[in-house]
Amino acid sequence: MKIGIPRAFLYYKYRYLWETFFHELGCEIVLSPETNRQIVKDGINYAMDESCLSSKIYLGHVHYLIDKCDYILVPRIANFGLGEVVCTKFQAAYDVIANTFRDQNIKILNYNIDHRKKQTEFKAFMKMGKELNKRKFEIIRAYFMAKQAEKTYFQLELKKQQELLKRDSELKVLIVSHAYNIYDKFVGEPIVKYLEKLDCIIIIGEISPKQEAKQEAKEMSPTLPWTYNKELLGAIKLYQKQVDGIVLMSSFPCGPDSLVNEMIIRKVKGKPILNLVLDEQEGNAGMETRLESFVDIIKLKKDVVNEKQKES
User: Fold this and answer.
1) How many CB atoms lie within 10 A of CB 79?
2) Reduced to 3 states, what is the DSSP secondary structure of residue 60?
3) Full DSSP string of 113-158
4) CATH code for the part of the protein at 167-311
C-alpha cells in the first residue's frame, strides 16, 4: 500500500506523526519532492487567483502525487475545540482537492479533526487505519508509536534551540512563521540560508513549548481565534528578550497572518521587526537587500546597547 504525502502545508508540522504511523502499519510512503518551479507553476494553474502562495504550492504537490500512490493524505482540520480554530484553507483542503482533481482518478485518505463535533485526532487515525484494512490493535499501536516519535523529535528540536539561545555573543534572529513557510525550499529556505550567511543564529518561533506559548498569546490578544497563530504569537513573548531582531514571514495574501503580523508590529516594542510577505513573483535580489539592511540595523542596535552597558 502506497500512501502519498504532499510535502507542503501541515506536513512540516506533523511529518513525524504521519510518517511513523504509516510505517508502523507497513505502508510505503511516497513523498512529493521539495518545492520547485514546476510544482509552483502546476499549483498556480489549478488554484484560484485569490489563493495564498502556500495553497498554490500545496495543489502543485498533490498534482505531482497523482498516479504515483494508492492514496493521498489530505487532512481536514477544522478546530481543536472552542476558540481553537485553524485557517479556513485547512478546513477546506479536502473538498478543494477532491473537486479540483475530480477527473484525475485521485483517491484521498480520510483524515478529519473537528473537536467541536467530537472528531478527535485519535478517531481520525483510527478511521484511516480501518480504511487501510488494518486491525484495531495494529492501528492503536501505530498511533501511540507515532505520538511518541513526534514528542521525541520535538523535545530534541527544543533542546537544540535552547542551546542556540545561550550563545550571547552572536546575532540571533527570531523567525515567526508557519512551518510550511519556513522549511519550504522555495518559500522560506532561501531566507533562512541568507540570514545564516550573514552570520545570524536562527531561532524558529514554531519551535516553542506550545501550551506556554498559548498562555503568553492570551496576554497580547485574548480573542485571537487561530490556534497556529496563537502558538507563534506566544513564541515572541517567550523569546523576545533573548533575540536581537524578529522576522515575520507570511505568504501572500494570507488573511490570518496579515492581521496577526500587523498586531505584532504595533504591540511588540524594543526589537527591530522585518515583515516579509512572499509571493511567487518575489525576486531574491530585492529580498537579500532587505535582509542585509535589517541585519545592519540589529547589529548597530546591539553595538549601542553594549556600549551603554560598558559605560554603566
Assistant:
1) 20
2) helix
3) EEGGGTB-HHHHHHHHHHHTT--HHHHHHHHHHHHHHHHHHHHHHH
4) 3.40.50.11890
